[in-house]
Amino acid sequence: MSALFLGIDVGTSSTKGVLVRPDGEIVASASRAHEFDLPRPGWAEHDADQIWWGDFVAIARSLTAPLAEPVTAVGVSGIGPVLQPTDERDRPLRPAILYGIDTRAGQEIDELNAELGADAIAERAGAPLTSQAIGPKLRWLRRHEPEVWRRTRRIHMANSYLVRRLTGEYVLDHHSASQAIPLYDSRKLDWADGWAAAIAEHIELPRLAWPAETAGLVTATAAAETGIPAGTPVTTGTIDAWTEALSVGVRRPGDVMLMYGTTMFIIAALDARRVSPPLWGTVGTFPGTFSLAAGMATSGATADWVRRLAGQPDFAGLAAEAGQSPPGANGLLMLPYLAGERSPLFDPDARGILAGLTLRHGRGDVYRAALEATAYGVRHNLESFAEAGAEPRRLVAVGGGTTGGLWTRIVSDVLQRPQSLCATPIGACLGAAYLAALTAGADVDIDAWNPVVTLVEPDPAHAAVYDEGYALYRRLYHDTVDIAHALAARQV
């Protein structure tokens, strides 16, 4: 009987699962859509029980129920860094506060920078304090929800919460911990002496392990809920963008993943630690590895906003119309900062702008401008990678936005770089299944599981118009930033 590895990933807008054989054969896959809550401008939240655990249980049951053979190992991953406070019985005390798209803790970022020193934080943690960081959100919780703060005993990210429900173990991987800035020391690979205790105070911090290490075994209670046999090993897991990168073989220095999802996320694999203020320096997925990461606050979310505004039921019709609009979208230019912006601006009060509108423009032009705006944002971030000494040598695209072809062609044209596409765009859940295989001691090769099948080549004829568009894109933010900030102040 062949081994069978289950990988489940909780993303921002959906949860996906896959069952894989050691040779990479995908036995079955499943997905469940969900939404994230936006209770106030700048806030973004998930219900951990309903979304994280509820989706996991539903997908695990749907994938394993038809099987006559048991799962060999379970891999988990999920959105992060996120903050889910729980009480002494690990019951969520409030909705989870999501990653950098949640910008509520701006005052707390300023306070911690003043107290600890911005340079000291970047040097010790590997990255600056931004809306992505956990430390400021903990301080926000203490200030604004004191009763929740008083009752908080543990803090979870999505993967650690799943591990806790499955195994009873309280453990977080080193990579995710390295994004819990400034609680983690990325030089010592441990919780930061002094800082962690001062910020987390009475909260118990999880033990640390690597993503492919066994976190624990499925308990009888979890087995009854999920259908996964008791005693099945479960990986520690990690943040979904890093399992997504793993799923397409981004692990060698110079490899860069472009993840086309609700947000655009970019990861460069490194063999040495680098600190670059416009980017996030993190610990890698495996011991001895590191990465630089960048993330836009929206990408697919902006495209979906245009789709809904245009009254379209799906993207296909809108993409066809955008395909008829020429490069440059007939003179339209968009800033895609509809939820502020993360790297490299780190400006939570940035706002979206659509410049150049006339009565002749149609929804295809607007949609193309939105796709081009995300491509300009990718170019801005990749320039920051190069400036940090991490020049991208190979770009690998993954995620739901790679289907259809238009978006990836626009990005390659704006970058004037090719992008590799792999056979299976399932993404992070496949990377989680790969971690499960490693946990089980299987001899597996992710490049064999998911080989490159397509190369998206740039069209040199479009280089000049996109070079000009990119220069205008950079100018538009700087020329309108004061107005954007003034308008953001009205949006409460």
Strand proportion, as a percent range, falls in 15-25%
Mean pLDDT: 96
CATH topology of the largest domain: Nucleotidyltransferase, domain 5
CATH superfamily of the largest domain: ATPase, nucleotide binding domain
* Span of the ends, CA to CA: 58 Å
Number of strands: 24
The amount of helix comes to 25-40%
Describe it for me?
- 38% of the residues lie in helices and 20% in strands.
- The chain has 17 helices and 24 strands.
- The radius of gyration is 22 Å and the shape is globular.
- The model has no long low-confidence stretch (mean pLDDT 96).
Provide tags for this entry.
2 domains; kinase activity; 20% strand; 38% helix; Nucleotidyltransferase, domain 5; alpha+beta; 7-stranded mixed β-sheet; 24 strands; 5-stranded mixed β-sheet; globular; 492 residues; ATPase_NBD
Task: Show the helix and strand layout.
Blueprint: E1 5-10, E2 14-20, E3 26-33, E4 45-46, H1 48-64, E5 73-78, E6 84-86, E7 96-97, H2 106-116, H3 118-125, H4 135-144, H5 146-151, E8 154-156, H6 158-167, E9 171-173, H7 174-178, E10 184-185, E11 190-191, H8 195-200, E12 207-209, E13 214-217, H9 220-226, E14 233-235, E15 238-239, H10 240-247, E16 255-260, E17 264-270, E18 280-283, E19 290-295, H11 300-309, H12 315-324, E20 333-335, E21 353-355, H13 363-387, E22 394-398, H14 406-415, E23 419-422, H15 428-439, H16 446-449, E24 452-456, H17 463-490
Parallel strand pairs: 1-5, 5-15, 9-12, 16-22, 22-23
Antiparallel strand pairs: 1-2, 2-3, 4-7, 6-8, 10-11, 13-14, 16-17, 17-19, 18-19, 20-21, 23-24
